[in-house]
Amino acid sequence: MGAYISRGTCKSEYGIYINCTVGKFTNGSIYSLGDIDKGKFQGDGDIAGIGIFSTFIGITSFALLLSLVVVMCSMVKHRIFPFQRCGDGFVINTETTAAAKNKIKPGVSEICQGMVLSCSDAQIFTGAAYALTLRYFRGCTITAYHYNVVANLMLLSCATHLMAITVVRNYWEYAWLALLRVICKTGVFLFTGILLSNQNADMTFAFPTKIPLPDDTTTPLFLYAACFQSNDTQVWSTIDESLKKKNFGNAVFNSTPGNRIEGWNKFLIILLWYIVAVFMEIAMFIRKGNRRDGYRRRLTKAFWRVMIQVGRFTIECLIPKRASTAQCTEAPVTSVVIDTQAPERATPRAVKEETSEQRTIRHLKWIGQYLLTLYYLIGIGICMWTVAASGNYIGKLKQWVQDSGWLDSDDKGANSENDATSFGQLVPLFTSGLVVFTFLEMISTSMSRRKDAKERLLERSDEEQHLPPPPQDPYKYEYTSETKPVLPTPSPEVSQQPVEGTTASQVHHSGPDAIHSYFPSSSEPIIAATTESTEPVSPLLELYSEPVPSQVDTDGSTIDQTVGQATSKSAVSYEKMPFHK
């Protein structure tokens, strides 16, 4: 609301004069309150309408149900229930099967957490609307009856915010968005505290917060709320007085820090637990940063070092080692392997003996899971108590007003507060329907992703059954008979001079008796080159070779042998080679 409203504030800042006179009969019965006569009171469907009340109760109850589902899933997953224990009751290892690896999120728990967060976000805007309305437009003209309704509706909103920040594990997945949510919700808590603390003013008439008896005709419930408020009331001073030792019990159990304020004890407990939840979320944010290098990993390691040193001797004394129970196996085990896809099934597995440090870490994690579950249950219990108490209070207060005879109704008894067809009530009703659509959309998306994942898994299994041959190395060149080059290979035996009586065919014969061959054998006959040959000799051959005396073969043919300058002058035979003229 930003500032405290009173008669003086309304007159000085807004120019609104508030009539706080009370008309009574001689028997004490009230027939008029300010400018309002009995039977002429105009209800306000935008604040106390049946549609508004149903929207708040519906969204908060839906978020509460989803929160219970989230906590139950967490308890089953971490084997918190006594019938899930094996061995010494503590889990060492968790095993992820192929089905768990191919699991497509979000699952049931993730969907419920997202919906709780959606319900909380929707009520942030409703709280902002009430804050602006009571601060700038209706602060001076709202009645005490409607003021009580708004204050308890805001308590329902605070309960939804507390559930969101308590059970949603990925609240800080996006740090800037989470920080914006925390700032907005802190503003809602502050506004709710201002609304409630304004009812603690030390005035001649105390703020009427109790539900009157059915035949009560002396309650000033329909008088303007500003008539009971003062500028001297401060929310922090009211909280401080409530937390003092002499007033704490009265404030918590009787909701009476000074005057009777309906819902003050709920707000006080919600506020304290909200502070605990904020610090818990910060701790979880630091813990999740252990996956990467940085200050969060260093803080996590330092925390575990301290906890191991402190808890080692305590755990050894309080939790001695013992054999496993009969429901798991008769032999003692030190490990229980949990399938994350089916956490209700446990498979005992014998492992090596644990070290003292490993056992300390295991038990500390188990204790941490129990404390975390207790933290969830306490938060949900506070929210459940708030929803039940505030919903019951608003319902009974509305019913008393309907039966009091003050409301202006038609011949059929209808008025603006029991008719949900007004524009101001239809808008929140349809807006709350968006939460249901979001819920259905998340379920549809999850089912579609699961279906696509199964199809991809089947396709992958079919491909693995018919694997194609692996591709060849692009840098490996396979030679063939046509492309592989033929390099000259010297014969194992090389003689400097030709053997007498050797024919040309024997010279070119490939085998151990070959004289020398730089080229593979050929079936073509050797062309004998003599000095009398008419075939011109290549100029290149004439330039780089010198003649050698001819040798006469056994058949009478002569063989002209040449030796290049780069080789020795041993006898070498040449095959027919084309030379360019």
Automatic annotation (TrEMBL):
Keywords linked to the UniProt accession: Membrane, Transmembrane, Transmembrane helix
Q: Where is the composition biased (Polar residues)?
A: 492-508, 551-571
Q: Which InterPro entries match?
A: Elsinochrome_Biosynth-Asso
Which residues does the annotated region (Disordered) include? 454-520, 547-581
Record-annotated membrane-spanning stretches: 47-71, 174-196, 267-286, 367-388, 426-444
* Biased composition regions of type Basic and acidic residues, renumbered to the chain: 454-466
The name under which this protein is listed is: Uncharacterized protein
Source organism of this protein record: Fusarium avenaceum
